Amino acid sequence: MMYTKEDIVTLDRVTKLKIINSVTGIKPANLVGTINDKGQTNLAIFSSVVHLGSDPALLGFIARPRTAEVGHTYRNILENGTYTINHIHPEFVKNAHYTSAKFDVDISEFERCKLTEEYITNFKAPFVKESSFKIGMRFVEAIDIKHNGTTLIIGEIEHLILPDNAMIDGDIDLEITNAVGISGLNSYYSLKKIENHPYARLNQLPEFE
Predict the structure, then answer these.
(1) Residue 41: closest CA among 125, 114, 162
(2) pLDDT digits (tens, 9 = 90+) for 45-80
(3) What is the C-alpha separation between 86 and 70, in angstroms, rounded?
(4) How many CB atoms are located within 10 Å of the residue 53 CB?
(5) CA gyration radius for the chain?
(6) In degrees, to the nearest 5, what angle opens at C-alpha 105 toward C-alphas 99 and 117?
(7) Bridge-partner residues for 189, per DSSP?
(8) Sign of CA dihedral 112, 115, 121, 123
(9) C-beta pairs of 115-121 under 8 Å, 24+ apart in sequence
(10) Burial of 26 (0-12, 13-18, 19+ CB in 10 A)
(11) Would the pTM of this model clear 0.90, i.e. be above it?
(12) d(CA 76, CA 73)
């Protein structure tokens, strides 16, 4: 099977979304938690969280073009400068999935999707209590992507919370944390660690068969 650009353009909207959202392979499934100046919380699922650098510790994610119905996450981040990234686990995949619905700004996805707000001292944004792997972020900058109206939101890690047993020889084992992956708009996957290799150095390159 092969699709040309012309084939892709003629696909119906939903089919196109599902296919193009799947072509990168399995992506991390995360819930981004925010709060506005009025104390209204928001929770939204994202599959675009990406590592941007380790020193400083930067992560990015893509926010869709803002409309009256879409963009509460970005607006809240701009208001308060903090947000959380929370891994999704099998026990609450369904709850997490439905945070993608276009709720009104005065309805909290935490409450409507039966997930629990959790706070830590001196950090305003809400974490997801049900998640065992969560990250507190401080907003750094936003880069507009003019070609499609989306925005790359960049933040620095201020808090990293994960299970003690997840650290194996200096690495985080995502199978132990029970992290969930996502493909397309609505397909979720469990993660299984299949191999581990040392840091790649030219003088230690193996002989490949």
Answers:
(1) 125
(2) 999 999 999 999 999 999 988 666 668 999 999 999
(3) 20
(4) 11
(5) 18
(6) 55
(7) 181
(8) negative
(9) 115/31, 115/43, 117/33, 117/41, 120/159
(10) middle
(11) yes
(12) 5
